[in-house]
């Protein structure tokens, strides 16, 4: 049904990842300044989502090197933190995301937020999700028939 990310794919074999959250002013050029710093330091952005308010925004990213990303951005004056997120590769078909979310709802799991990326080799969507207990969610998905390495 759904597969864990394989070792040669999107996340280097990990289903549980470190996400970097960056708190930044909501002003012209800010996002490009951040992406420029990452480019200059050879850090690849694998998935991201931005949420804004009038003055500040939160940029959430899964990157190729979370520790280095934190170091670079903090040195540039950005407030950042890491958190654990879960990545689930699903089929590219109608209802695939709904199936994952229904499994979690039926298990009484609240999903705080999600964003999508894709597996560069297969083209399949990858749902990145944040929950209060990513270990429990991983176990639930595995017990519901999601195949894992």
From TrEMBL:
Cross-referenced SUPFAM superfamilies: ACT-like
InterPro entries: ACT-like_dom_sf, ACT_dom, ACT_dom_pair
Pfam families: ACT_8
PROSITE patterns (UniProt xref): ACT (PS51671)
Ranges for domain ACT: 19-93
Signal peptide: none
Stated name of the protein: ACT domain-containing protein
């Amino acid at each position: 049904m759904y597969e864990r990310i394989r070792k040669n794919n999107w996340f280097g074999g990990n289903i549980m990842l470190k996400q970097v959250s960056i708190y930044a002013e909501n002003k012209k050029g800010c996002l490009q300044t951040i992406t420029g710093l990452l480019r200059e330091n050879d850090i690849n952005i694998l998935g991201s989502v931005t949420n804004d308010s009038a003055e500040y925004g939160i940029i959430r990213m899964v990157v190729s090197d979370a520790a280095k990303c934190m170091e670079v951005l903090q040195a540039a004056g950005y407030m950042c933190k890491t958190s654990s997120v879960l990545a689930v590769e699903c089929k590219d078909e109608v209802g695939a995301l709904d199936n994952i979310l229904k499994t979690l709802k039926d298990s009484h799991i609240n999903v705080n937020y999600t964003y999508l990326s894709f597996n560069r080799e297969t083209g399949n969507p990858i749902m990145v999700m944040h929950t209060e207990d990513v270990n429990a969610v991983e176990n639930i998905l595995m017990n519901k028939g999601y195949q894992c390495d």
